[in-house]
Amino acid sequence: MPKVKNQMADTNSNEGISRLDGQLFIGGSFVPGEGLRLPVENPATGTIIGHIAAATQAEVNAAVFAARKAFSAWSRTMPRTRADALHRLGNLIAADALNMAVIMTTEQGKPVNEAKGEILKLAEACHFYAEEATRVFGEIVPNDQPGFQSLVMREPIGVVAAITPWNYPAELVGWKLCASLAAGCTIVIKPAEITPYTALAIAEKCVEAGIPAGVVNILTGKGSLVGQALVEHPQVDKVAFTGSSAVGLHIQQSCPQVKRLSLELGGNCPMIVTASADVAAAVRGATRRSFRNCGQICIAVNRIYVHRSVYNDFVTRLGVAADALSVQNGLENPGADLGPMASAEPLAKTAQHLADALQKGARLVAGGKAPEGQGYANGHFFRPTVVADCTHAMKVMTEETFGPLVGVAPFDDLSEAVALANDTPYGLASYVFARDLVEVQTLSQGLDYGNVAINNVDPGMMNAPYGGRKQSGIGYEHGREGLLEYFNFKHVRLHHGVGA
Ligand code: TAP
Among 138, 335, 383, 450, which residue is least crowded by beta carbons within 10 Å? Predict the structure, then answer.
């Protein structure tokens, strides 16, 4: 029974998971959930690593009640006190980054080194929002009558429900958690069903950091039940959602009360490589941003438009670079380039988009199948794949694949490239490789995206707003703008009579 053997190995390698198994975090305590148990898989081996508790409606109510109760005190703590708590949380997370990374790799698949990098970025987010907490200012607004003064103040919204996907199980929880805590909000988090343990491990750090009971709560279970119950809960004041555009739209349409929503949704991100580009740099950028985390990232490069003068050179080099990437079990090989995909679902979609492209005339340049060998037999592995000579009749160019597949097509003039890049309902991130200043300016103005990265492939940084347009969402994370999503304005118009 090799499966059982594997299962033991997985469990032994990760005590953290058995400690958190079946737990919910409500009102400052870990409690065994009362609902059904749902299995969680290691995507590299196909073995079951544990079971989460599907939170019941009573547990949803208890978590929201705990957050509501904690809000009255937490919202009134001094910003410096909240900042200190966030700094402590960041330090504790950084100090335990490797153990937390192993938990993440076991449930999500990304190699341990990459998972550790994500944990450290979460720690960075804690410190960033800690500092921002002390810099939330109001305004004094000129009045049109003497003797009046108008103050515009910022007050925390209240109880936040955070609903998050599985591709970045620490950062996407953490951005919402840190912004909520900095603003003085309290939070109930519903992580993705397939990556619950990283979120529960973050809750352990909240306890160690001395964050008061009820300020942070974690509920596990299915999005359609537990997530939906939070969306519909009358005591939830804001929903902070990251996930697919389809579920984001459903949340917007099914929310029965007026409440604040921020929606960070899907992408279908283009890269444009012009005639003036540094082709080697463009190939490095495309390789990183198409295949990192197996392409399971909302800002992954899905489609690349290359000027015809450098097209063949670019395609050949990208194929070589993709073939050079290692795909391995990320627990056993912490430094692998790619691990398995997180589950069978995105793997099936990748295979489907590839078949669609090939059937419509695309040329396979690299990858196209799972790696061969016994070590890959039970996991969700796929080689990084490049298809060339693509058109917009193909799904790879028009839909989000969310897998290690990228399509490439040639263009002749810049306006054609901009039109192709903008030919999508999405507007999250776009990429440009060009050295000619006029080309750079034309493209940065013409691309209808919330983020444009030029001669690099890292559009997100903590200091700048990060968000999409069109079907990619509403609202921002990161930067001052990300924090202000967690505040209401209050206008206080005071008649003092002086000078009247
Ligand atoms: P989804 O299927 O949309 O799931 C996201 C979260 O929503 C999960 O926790 C899910 O729970 C929950 N959910 C599902 N149905 C729900 C409902 N009716 N009410 C409330 N919550 C519900 O996305 P995914 O497959 O996990 O993630 C991939 C998608 O996320 C991609 O489209 C990607 O582009 C997008 N994404 C966007 C960003 C940004 S910043 N824009 C970042 C990362 C990912 P279950 O897990 O239990 O289904």
Answer: 335
Q: What is the DSSP string of 303-325?
A: EEEEEGGGHHHHHHHHHHHHHT-
Whether the predicted model's global pTM rises above the 0.85 cut: yes
pLDDT digits (tens, 9 = 90+) for 389-442: 999 999 999 999 999 999 999 999 999 999 999 999 999 999 999 999 999 999
* pLDDT tens, residue by residue, 2-54: 333 344 344 445 789 999 999 999 999 999 999 999 999 999 999 999 999 99
Do 2-265+474-487 and 269-461 show the same overall fold?
no
Nearest by Cα to 107 from 29, 28, 187, 220:
220
Which fold would CATH assign to domain 2-265+474-487? Answer: Aldehyde Dehydrogenase; Chain A, domain 1 (3.40.605)
Catalytic residues: 264, 298
User: Does the beta carbon of 229 sit less than 6 angstroms from any atom of ligand 1?
Assistant: no
E strand or H helix at 234: none
Q: How far apart are CA 215 and CA 359, in angstroms?
A: 53
Q: Can you spell out the DSSP letters for 269-306?
A: EEEEE-TTS-HHHHHHHHHHHHHGGGG-STT-EEEEEE
- 112-133 vs 79-95: helix crossing angle, rounded to 10: 170
The residues that bridge with 488 in the sheet, in sequence order, are 155
Report which ligand 1 atom has the smallest distance to the Cα of 267. 34
Instruction: Evaluate: CB of 165 within 6 angstroms of ligand 1.
Output: yes
Task: Assess contact for 120 and 303: CB atoms under 8 A.
Answer: no
For atom 35 of ligand 1, the residue with the nearest CA is 243
- pLDDT tens digits along 347-398: 999 999 999 999 999 999 999 999 999 999 999 999 999 999 999 999 999 9
Q: Rg of the Cα trace of the chain?
A: 24
Surface-to-core class of residue 112, CB atoms within 10 Å of its CB (0-12 exposed, 13-18 middle, 19+ buried): buried
**Is there a contact between 309 and 278 (Cβ–Cβ < 8 Å)?**
no
Confidence of residue 500 (pLDDT cuts 50, 70, 90): confident
**What is the second-level CATH architecture of the domain 269-461?**
3-Layer(aba) Sandwich (3.40)
Q: What is the DSSP string of 97-151?
A: HHHHHHHHHHHH---HHHHHHHHHHHHHHHHHHHHHHTT---EEE--SSTTEEEE
DSSP string, 364-422: EEE--SPPPSGGGTTS-----EEEES--TTSHHHHS---SSEEEEEEESSHHHHHHHHH
For residue 239 and ligand 1, the question of a CB distance below 6 A is answered with no
Structural domain boundaries of the chain? Answer: 2-265+474-487, 269-461
Q: Is 109 left (phi over 0), alpha (psi -120 to 50) or beta?
A: left
